[in-house]
Amino acid sequence: MKRLILTAITLACFTFISQVDAAAWRTCNGNKIKWGSNTKTMRASNVSFAAGGSYLSALQTVISRVNDNPSKFNFNLVTGDTSVGFDNGQNETWFTNDAAALNGAPAVAFTWSHCYWFFGWHYGIDEVDVLFNNNVSYTSSSNKSSSITYGGSFRPFRTTATHEFGHAMGLLHENRYYNIMGQDWDFIHANGNSTRAYLGEDAANGSVILYGTTTGNMQDVSLAHHKYLGTSGEYSTHQSTRLLNGAGGNLASFTNSGERVYRVNKGQSVRLELTAENNGKSTQNPQVGYYISTNNIISTGDQNIGTGSLTLTRNIPYTFQRSLTIPSSLNSGQYYWIGAVIDNNNAIAESSGVNNATYLRIYVNY
């Protein structure tokens, strides 16, 4: 969420725009409202983000993930700020109980911008302050079991912070695609028992539209077991991807430890649904391997049950289905995990490979 305070002289003109491309931002007389330079310093409160504390560590990780984008823009994080406040010429972040400022939101990015005519148009972002609601049950952990996304009790701080720093970059809410700028807590990657917050393809594309493409070699493809569901006001909503039968119908399922488990038969044809993203600077054609695992960490060392390839431009996340066969060699009455690894042959020089694999859980019927 955000608050926008406008400073105008003589004439101001702001318009919300939606493009065929993913992502959204504000404009001034057709010009994108953004920072005037490609590096901005964000100062973290020494109380909210204490030295050596888990929330400072989580915030540092978030800044790193936001900076892992294919544009020229990045944040520089300074810690130990002793006097945070609004409209003081500094970009700052802190936790607060200020109900009036938060207006019921889990977090808010207050953005001060200018847009005026004075012998030519002048426009841009002047200051951003990111506030987190001290009354929200956050977790700074990446432990999957603690997150509301997977049946836990806590909102993942890292996804909310990534959303707010997307605002700080200049992005608005998005309701058309699977996107961190929509509903943030289930825009998340998981493989194993840990979750990973990330900026994602849609917001990465927005960063490039605002600031241009980096000259560095920033490439990154990823898989997630969530996808676009629909619209809730300004926000996109998301849901888990599915395992379907060979005809595309629903498989019987149940919930265990906060995750959907699909009942399958040995030798059965199924369709695995996942979301692929190109978070990097250029089009990629990654190979994808499909696997069965005896645990929730999908890797190339697991039993291979298929291969394929995708063509991924950098624009909109791609939810796809792949037909596979459940191996007849699996044990009846046992849990397994079916999943995929994108770029399983390591053909792409990626900035991160830890987001390349994900899964759905299955139970083999007797």
Q: Strand-residue fraction?
A: 35-45%
Q: In terms of per-residue confidence, which ranges show pLDDT below 50 for 5 or more consecutive residues?
A: 1-19
Mean pLDDT: 94
Number of domains: 2
Shape: globular
Tally of DSSP helical segments: 4
CATH class division of the largest domain: Alpha Beta
- Which superfamily, in CATH terms, is the homologous superfamily of the largest domain? Collagenase (Catalytic Domain)
Amino- and carboxy-terminal Cα gap: 49 Å
Rg (C-alpha, Å): 22 Å
CATH topology of the largest domain: Collagenase (Catalytic Domain)
Largest sheet: 6 strands, mixed
Q: How are the strands of the biggest sheet laid out side by side?
A: 1-8-9-7-5-6
**CATH architecture type of the largest domain:** 3-Layer(aba) Sandwich
Helices and strands, in order, run as EEEEEHEEHEEEEHEEHEEEEEEEEEEEE
Signal peptide: 1-22
InterPro entries: Ig-like_fold, MetalloPept_cat_dom_sf
Organism: Aliikangiella coralliicola
GO molecular function, one term: metallopeptidase activity
Structural topology:
Layout: E1 2-7, E2 14-18, E3 24-28, E4 31-32, E5 39-45, H1 54-67, E6 74-81, E7 92-96, H2 99-102, E8 107-117, E9 121-133, E10 138-139, E11 155-156, H3 157-169, E12 189-190, E13 195-196, H4 200-211, E14 221-224, E15 226-232, E16 235-240, E17 243-245, E18 253-256, E19 259-264, E20 269-278, E21 287-293, E22 303-309, E23 318-325, E24 335-342, E25 357-364
Parallel strand pairs: 1-8, 5-6, 5-7, 7-9, 10-11, 19-25
Antiparallel strand pairs: 2-3, 3-4, 8-9, 12-13, 14-20, 15-16, 17-20, 18-19, 20-23, 21-22, 21-24, 24-25
Helix pairs in contact: 1-3
